[in-house]
Amino acid sequence: MDYQNRAGSKFGGGGVASTSATNADRRERLRKLALETIDLDKDPYFFKNHVGSFECRLCLTVHQNDGSYLAHTQGRKHQTNLARRAAKEQKEGKQDNIIPGLLAGVQVRKNVIKIGRPGYRITKIRDPVTRQYGLLFQFRFPEITTDTKPRVRFMSAYEQKIEEPDPNYQYVVVAGEPYETVAVKIQAREVDRREGKFWTWFDEDNKVFWVQLLFKTERDERFSAVPGLSTGRR
């Protein structure tokens, strides 16, 4: 770092760095150090969220770029939390279950041979009372593993690695072993999660997994974040 020609210093003797300049230099040195020792692809606490920011799942902090995250990993807070996590896992006897690249303490599952994709049917629906548009999914799992129920979750466009991220879309992801996990691309509109609007049901006799979702109306989406106003018509 160049300390020449700073106010309050003698010629040729280096300068007095400001607090902000000193902090910036420290962060840059920490980032370079982290680049030499950390592979972000194998960091279990590194997560890129749907808005493009980077999160530390260990410290619950948000960073605008990977350099900021790397500098954070070399800081006192992150290192202290790492030590606490290691001590806790050692005390609980989970140290042997740690695998590089996976979250610490997660039990290892044996590989399951996939037998193909489940059959599916998608129907457009509309609530007769609220006039909300929605979708009804039917996924067929005739050979699903015994005592296993399919699961569903929503995934943003920035979480997937198959297509170029498009903020106008999101994905409905359904999994049920031993079938392959499938995803359906839908509009990136807010889903109404109230009782009776969004629901799932697994027909164990016919091995059909039902998922219904209704999108919030434009009015509900506009005022959902306004304090004191209702999030939707009931």
UniProtKB/TrEMBL annotation:
The keyword Lipoprotein does not apply. Keywords: Metal-binding, mRNA processing, mRNA splicing, Nucleus, Spliceosome, Zinc, Zinc-finger. It comes from the Eukaryota. Residues 1-23 are annotated as: Disordered. Belongs to the SF3A2 family. One of its GO terms (biological process) is spliceosomal complex assembly. It comes from Westerdykella ornata. GO terms for cellular component: catalytic step 2 spliceosome; U2 snRNP; U2-type prespliceosome. Gene3D superfamilies: 2.60.40.2690. This is Putative splicing factor 3A subunit 2.
